[in-house]
Amino acid sequence: MAPIVSVSNLSKTYASGFTALKGVSLDIEQGEILALLGPNGAGKTTMISIICGIVNASGGEVTVGGHDVVRDFRQTRAMIGLVPQELTTDAFETVWNTVSFSRGLHGKKPDPAHIEKVLKDLSLWDKKDNMLRELSGGMKRRVLIAKALSHEPRVLFLDEPTAGVDVTLRKSMWDVVRELRASGVTIILTTHYIEEAEEIADRIAVINGGEILLVEEKAALMTKLGRKQLRVDLAQPLDRVPEILSSYDLTLEGDGQCLIFDYDTSAGRTGITALLAALAEAGIRLKDISTRQSSLEDIFVEIVEAGR
User: Fold this and answer.
1) Among 87, 97, 188, 246, which is least packed, fewest CB within 10 Å?
2) d(Cα 202, Cα 29) in Å, to the nearest integer?
3) Are 216 and 249 in contact (CB under 8 A)?
């Protein structure tokens, strides 16, 4: 099956001379959740803006549903929903009118039942008659998502959708995103909350300095780059790692109270058994042992640092 969004050799240089994108290529599959991760200024918003027809590219090509975003602007824009970072709403309009008007802007006939469903899914139904100026920042962000869903898009871009939203509302939004994916909507998510990507994404793309550094299935990425860490709490503190343990590349932390050992779970041998035997041989008594899996945030930092 052809990708729903295809980005080929995309570049963008602004009038100031700043190059935001450098030959970016990326295919996004129908019905997936892709998390686009990168530090501030990496090129995330520029790429999304080009795909959505808001910014003109300097070079390259983008298609959505097989249509070129420049030549077939009306067709591609009708297929796309965009939730921007900025809270741009009409403060003196009601929630219902705002979302209904957005549907009309995309050439869709009125459908009160659909608008009602969107508002209920986003826990906005009891606010439908409120003016936007009466809503909290988190509720206003939900309205932006409702506007983006008003015309039933096939592709939904969420650019920092949960910024300023409390944890409870954020998790309820994740449920909405999963439901949308289940209905066939393709979702591209940018976020500074790495745990958000770890929770809901199918694939991870990392961009930095206007270049794609990696595109990988989340599970495969966690397996391939993720490592586990063994934490050994000691009965008595050490002032240094004994020579007998030098081959294990241990780190001494917590004022000498803890030894840290990184190991690869995919390796044939982790080295843990040999390490514990060496600790016993060295006469080092243990208080506790625990393990910690590398998070997506650890992996993201490692990739970005390596790409600099």
Assistant:
1) 246
2) 10
3) no
Print the domain residue range for 187. Answer: 5-223
Domain final position from 204, 223, 242 = 223
Q: How many CB atoms lie within 10 A of CB 212?
A: 23
Q: Which two tokens stand for residue 195?
A: 């745990």
Q: 258-263 and 5-13 as β-strands: parallel, antiparallel, unpaired?
A: unpaired
Are 92 and 144 members of one domain?
yes
Give dist(CA 308, CA 297) in Å, integer.
17
Q: Is residue 203 included in any domain, yes or no?
A: yes
Question: Which residue ranges of the chain lie beneath pLDDT 70?
Answer: 86-89, 163-167, 193, 222-227, 264-268, 293-308
Q: Which of 173, 201, 223 is the last residue of a domain?
A: 223
Q: Indicate whether 96 and 165 sit together in one domain.
A: yes
For the entire predicted model, the pTM comes to 0.73
Helix (H, G, I), strand (E, B) or coil at 74: helix
Q: Where are the beta strands (DSSP E) in 126-257?
A: 155-159, 186-190, 203-208, 211-217, 228-234, 251-253
